[in-house]
Design a protein that fits this description.
This protein is an alpha+beta fold. The protein is 37% helix and 20% strand. The longest helix has 25 residues. Bound molecules: 2-(butylsulfanyl)adenosine.
């Protein structure tokens, strides 16, 4: 036998062994060999494949280690829409759901089988297996089209690269959740803190962020896990019940919830939901509720779906978790616009899966209304991805030593006067060159919805400004190699990534740059409106009050703010530097492209079936039209989805042309 043939056989043996031990360890949680022995097998395989590249196959366990970074994510159309779930926020809402099911099926509760599963709080994934091999993995996206994250999903050890079935179905699309354990979550955040990077707010964000990494090596290091709960599409297999689906998935090698249970009738379902509310803290991962599903697939089909979610399933959401803790201090933070915000520094408590050490008190009035004092015992609550908040102070626990906090009359960062104009809730620092404002301003410029400069977090921003490596946002585009080297927080790779992200940001549309400039009252939507009407920064800079307020949605406050921005000499200098750096600062008209909707104003209301409101808006804008948030005489079209709001009535009153989804899709060219 020649060397290659021998290697081929050895590789096969190794692969089978590795996948077997992988499954024992990551899916069954019952390993048969030590970690070191496992690593030895894997290394032998990797060496063999390096020596004989022809041996590498898509399902090789070596592929989990992490492939080369991608440029961007390709789009994947799901074979069937990935629906979401409607929520039940209380036991009453849950029993209303169960009653609707009973009515819809015309059955008594005791005649209906339900399956209850835990709702693991991660991010949804859809995996395609062709002939038993994992060929694609995608995020949910808008439900119809997701992003191709195959290389990243392959790094999840509990995901089978090949189905463990003798006769796998020719095509199978399975649905599940990628998530991060609480332990892993805490570890990642510790590392990020040490590296001066921004922290993930909760395990769900950490999972979603890790899955959407262009570099699979980063995903691999995050050690995601997975759990599967359904089939989106299958050829060659069929089922009668959801419980059967779960069993099939388990046999095929997927991790499914060990806590899934099948019950008859409402009472047991309610008891299951109630029970897990108490027990949730005992799990090593975060759950945010219980999913209740009708078991029979025939009955599911009879009940059907709305455009967004099935009528045969519901997510029972646990109520907001509350904890008691102490207010150690009250600090004041200074935001981008110079706003002074009181923040309660808390004795850290773990609530709903994340450690809470601070809670905003919003402003002076809010702090007084809740009567929060330094030294108080307070009730803190957090629900899902909501920012933690102080519900109330516990007055009965006061000893008398508590102190009322007075907002400072000077900015805590630069010492300038901080004034609160009459009629406003917010006190502001009056110094526009205040360092705190500059950091926040820089972070805003780099944020996702502005210039999307990944890697420019608080620590880096602070260092760039403190060491005077940059003075303003435009200087980012003139950083030298030596400048990057000076950033202490950075290893070489991080510096390279930041440099690339800055370079990429030059391609961001004008409206995102305008938003990034941080002009007061010019938020994301107003930036769109302004750039639709003033196609370049020069047009905008020279527009007077009348020209600005002539635009729908632009009121006097925005107009004044825009004008005052462009009269500030410092701002003009920054803009000139941005131009010199090669940023275009105007709307790029796509050459030769037809703009059939030019000058037409659209308003959207209700849920669309085939596309999200954001996508619909993007399409309209791409064709030259504009999107407004309210119906008026100037509205040309109202696009109406299901369950439209009051805009529908208003449009009828004003005689605005109304389009249903089908008509709209036709108009925008399908
Ligand atoms: S069923 C058609 N079951 O919850 C039914 N979803 O809004 C669609 N999730 O992000 C979902 N655990 O990934 C279902 N046992 C479970 C689930 C579950 C978590 C997630 C799902 C999606 C969200 C649904």
């Amino acid at each position: 036998m020649d060397g290659f043939q021998e290697a081929k056989e050895r590789a096969k043996t190794l692969r089978e062994a590795i996948e077997h031990h992988n499954y024992r360890y990551y899916v069954l949680d019952a390993p048969e060999i030590s970690d070191a022995e496992y690593d030895e097998l894997l290394h032998e395989l990797i060496e063999l494949e390096e020596r004989y590249p022809a041996l590498v196959s898509a399902d090789s366990p070596s592929m989990r280690v992490g492939a080369a970074p991608a440029e961007s994510f390709a789009q994947v159309t799901h074979r069937t829409k990935m629906l979401s779930l409607s929520d039940a926020f209380s036991l009453q809402e849950l029993s209303a759901f169960l009653a609707r099911v009973g009515k819809g099926l015309d059955l008594n509760q005791e005649e209906i089988d339900y399956v209850c599963e835990l709702k693991v709080d991660g991010t949804a994934i859809s995996l395609t297996y062709e002939g038993g091999l994992l060929t694609n993995a995608a995020t949910r996206g808008d439900g119809q089209v997701g992003e191709d994250v195959t290389l990243n999903v392959k790094t999840i050890r509990s995901v089978p690269l090949r189905l463990r079935l003798d006769e796998p179905p020719p095509l199978l699309e399975v649905r599940g959740e990628a998530y991060i354990s609480l332990e892993q979550f805490t570890g990642i955040n510790k590392e990020r803190e040490a590296a001066g990077e921004s922290l993930f707010a909760n395990p769900r964000n950490a999972a979603a962020g890790s899955l959407r990494q262009l570099d699979p090596v980063v995903t691999a290091a995050r050690e995601l896990d997975s759990i599967f709960y359904g089939i989106g599409y299958a050829e060659g297999v069929s089922f009668e019940s959801h419980f059967q689906v779960l069993n099939f998935l388990r046999q095929a090698g997927f991790k499914t919830s060990p806590f899934a249970k099948r019950f008859k009738g409402a009472a047991k379902v309610e008891a299951f939901c109630n029970g897990w509310q108490e027990k949730r803290a005992s799990l090593p991962y975060e759950i945010d509720g219980v999913v209740v599903k009708v078991d029979s697939l025939k009955q599911q089909a009879r009940l059907g779906n709305t455009s967004r979610s099935p009528r045969w399933a519901v997510a029972f959401k646990f109520p907001a978790e509350q904890r008691t803790t102490n207010v150690l201090d009250i600090e004041v933070s200074v935001g981008r616009t110079g706003a002074l915000t009181p923040v309660a520094i808390l004795e850290p408590v773990l609530i709903a899966g994340s450690t809470v050490g601070r809670a905003t008190l919003h402003n002076e009035d809010e702090m007084r209304r809740k009567d929060v004092r330094i030294g108080d015992s307070v009730i803190v609550q957090k629900a899902g991805d909501v920012i933690p908040e102080i519900v109330a102070s516990i007055i009965s626990k006061r000893s008398g030593a508590e102190r009322i906090f007075e907002m400072p009359k000077e900015c805590p960062v630069c010492g300038s006067r901080a004034i609160r104009p009459s009629g406003e809730a917010v006190r502001r620092c009056t110094n526009i060159t205040c360092p705190a404002q500059r950091i926040e301003h820089l972070l805003h410029f780099a944020s996702r919805s502005a210039m999307d400069i990944d890697g420019l977090g608080p620590a880096v921003a602070e260092e760039l400004l403190a060491k005077e490596i940059i003075e303003d946002i435009a200087d980012l585009y003139f950083l030298s190699k030596a400048d990057f080297e000076e950033i202490e927080h950075f290893k070489e790779k991080a510096a390279r990534n930041l440099k690339a992200a800055i370079e990429r940001s030059k391609e961001r549309p004008f409206s995102r740059l305008l938003y990034g400039l941080g002009i007061r009252h010019v938020g994301s939507h107003i930036s769109d409106v302004l750039t639709e009407n003033f196609r370049s920064i020069d047009d905008l800079a020279t527009a007077d009050f009348e020209a600005l307020t002539a635009v729908e949605e632009i009121g006097p406050a925005v107009a004044e703010s825009v004008i005052s921005f462009f009269t500030e000499e410092h701002n003009i200098k920054v803009i000139e530097k941005l131009k010199a750096a090669g940023l275009s600062l105007k709307v790029e008209e796509k050459g030769g492209q037809v703009m059939p909707l030019k000058g037409q104003t659209f308003v959207l209301t209700g849920a669309l079936d085939g596309l999200t409101r954001e996508d619909a808006g993007e399409r309209i804008k791409a064709l030259g039209g504009r999107v407004s948030s309210s119906v008026s005489e100037k509205t040309d079209y109202l696009v109406v989805g299901s369950e439209p709001g009051s805009k529908f009535e208003k449009a009828k009153e004003l005689g605005v042309k109304i389009l249903n989804e089908g008509e709209f899709v036709k108009l925008i060219g399908g």
